[in-house]
UniProtKB/TrEMBL annotation:
It is found in: Cell membrane. It is a multi-pass membrane protein. It comes from Natronospirillum operosum. GO terms for cellular component: plasma membrane. The keyword DNA-binding does not apply. This is ABC transporter permease.
Length: 312
């Protein structure tokens, strides 16, 4: 197991390097001059050139990339143009909000998706199964920003029971209330995906001979599901959950903008609007690393769930 983990970690280094290269050059080739965002509209060319020199944009792209890569290898992601502080500091300040949002969204996806999928698999083509199909189609088809605005309109504006925007970290309860609507918005689509995968995986397992034998022995349905079927259907579900966590990280940008949350997604959007190259590059690189670690943990979880899987 240790050798497998080391091989996987070493194998991720080229991936992170490729992500860094692509990110750097795509950001550098994007239209717009970052210096124009930090001077007045009627600034003379000399002032603009001075700001470009101050930001290091007067050097060739290849030279800037070599300098940036060298700093990254030393653990330095650079200084933000807009915030004028280390990129890592800005990332860590915004990280807790995004992590809490992802956590609550994942809880909603699991608490809703797995039971709905199990009930659908118990009686295929029944009433619950048809409801599950409609639930999943809506969840996977409706854009996050549209669902978010509908929730704000209903619970914040019409009923007035939830905050419309912003994040209040005064206490756990106020923070939870601030993140509840965004978590529902982000978790609904993932709950739909988990429900469909749970149903599909359970239907496949329920057709196996050992499950049919357990039923023939007269075992109760909860025992058959919990002891014989669900454990053997977990691997595909875990795979979807691992992908869902990556999707939560990617989809949080839209939700954080809609609900005005000071998380990583909002930070990326603001950095793109201000052409804050170091912040964009640093966040994308760190996010890629987080997703790689999540995929590794998902692979390791397979061996815990299914004893037949060995990585020795």
């Amino acid at each position: 197991m240790t050798a497998f983990i080391l091989r996987r970690l070493l194998g991720t280094l080229p991936i992170v390097l490729i992500v860094g290269i692509i990110t750097f050059f795509l950001v550098q080739l994007s239209p717009g001059d970052p210096a124009m965002f930090y001077v007045s509209a009627d600034a003379p060319p000399q002032e603009i050139e001075r700001v470009r020199t101050q930001l290091g944009l007067d050097q060739p792209v290849i030279q800037r990339f070599g300098f940036w890569l060298g700093e990254v290898l030393q653990g330095n992601l650079g200084i933000s143009f807009h915030q004028n502080r280390p990129v890592l500091t800005g990332f860590l300040d915004a990280l807790p909000v995004t992590l809490w949002l992802a956590f609550f969204s994942l809880v909603i996806a699991l608490v809703v998706g797995i039971p709905v999928g199990l009930l659908s698999a118990l009686r295929p083509n029944g009433l619950v199964d048809k409801f599950s199909t409609v639930f999943a189609l809506i969840g996977m088809s409706m854009p996050n920003f549209w669902l978010g605005m509908l929730l704000v309109l209903l619970f914040a504006i019409t009923l007035g029971v939830m905050p419309a925007q912003g994040y209040d970290p005064t206490s756990f309860w106020t923070g939870f209330r601030s993140l509840l609507l965004p978590a529902i918005t982000l978790g609904y689509s993932q709950a739909a995906l988990v429900a469909r995968m749970t149903r599909s995986s359970m239907l496949e397992v329920m057709r196996q001979d050992y499950v049919q034998t357990a039923r023939a022995k007269g075992l109760r349905t909860p025992v058959v599901l919990g002891k014989h079927a669900f454990g053997n259907a977990l691997n595909p579900i875990v795979t979807v959950i691992g992908l869902a966590i990556g999707s939560l990280a990617a989809g949080s940008a839209v939700v954080e903008v809609v609900f005005n949350l000071p998380g990583i997604g909002r930070l990326v959007v603001d950095s793109v609007m201000r052409r804050d190259y170091p912040m964009i590059q640093g966040i994308l690189l760190l996010t890629a690393g987080m997703i790689i670690v999540i995929n590794l943990l998902t692979d390791l979880l397979y061996a815990i769930i299914d004893p037949r899987i060995r990585y020795d």
